[in-house]
Amino acid sequence: MPLSPEVVTRARERVGSFVRRKYHFDALVGIGGTAAVYAATHRNGTRVALKVLHPELALIADIQARFLREGYVANRIAHEGVVRVVDDDDDETFHTVFLVLELLEGETIAERVAHTAASMDESVQWGDRLLDILAAAHDVGVVHRDIKPENLFLTRSGTLKLLDFGIARLLDGSSATRSGLLLGTPAFMSPEQASGHARDVDARSDLWSTGAVLFRLIADRPVHLARSPAEQMLFAATQPAPKLETVVPGISARLGNVVDRALAFERADRWQDARTMRTALREAVGTNR
């Protein structure tokens, strides 16, 4: 959904100001549907990122709770591929809340492939690293629920970071979202997510989305071709994914099978955990990364 001019203008106006008399907004890094992200400097000289919830959304208790909960969820995962959330606070001037995160320099995979198609080796490397992060997340009961190229960040040093745990679900049953609320991104939603079956979403849903990312990178198209996000969601909820080899003729059968199994319509037919899928991916391409 396009951002309103008011949201963009307000986000830009913050640059050069302070929040809580300790964080200086240095530059606007990006604006999304729920928040604006800034490069900032603490008064002690530490460089950080500030993720500020759009004020109109801060008025909705459920959204504010989900936004703040990102810090508690992400920090449960002991992996370098998860962005550290070091603080949260409220912005009295704009009547909203914000998170303080480690500052990343680089680009998302979505930005990278927008101007340069991913090579097969890059696609496999990124899939391998993502599965390693997911294994650590799933070990502590965290399901991300929004795996997509826009949430995969490549730092300048080459580290892959998984962003935005704002809609993650804790498998201990706690959740900051209303029951039945549809969350995720249509092109990368598992069938159970697209169908609105929130209770069925588990680690295997993340693996379906990982398969969708690999499919997108290797085939240079989404799993389901559709005319709109709504139609993509409908297809995800009702149609099996096409076999990768039917879209990419000549693809290695073993690699195709890894992706196809991740994209199985029924959860029981998918890879059952991230480590098993990661091992299969490595074996398919003959690597010991």
UniProtKB/TrEMBL annotation:
Domain of life: Bacteria
GO molecular function ontology, one term from the record: ATP binding
Positions annotated to bind ATP: K51
Record-linked InterPro entries: Kinase-like_dom_sf (IPR011009), Prot_kinase_dom (IPR000719), Protein_kinase_ATP_BS (IPR017441), Ser/Thr_kinase_AS (IPR008271)
Record-annotated Protein kinase domain positions: 23-285
Pfam families linked to this entry: Pkinase
Keywords tagged on the record: ATP-binding, Kinase, Nucleotide-binding, Serine/threonine-protein kinase, Transferase
Protein name: Serine/threonine protein kinase PknB
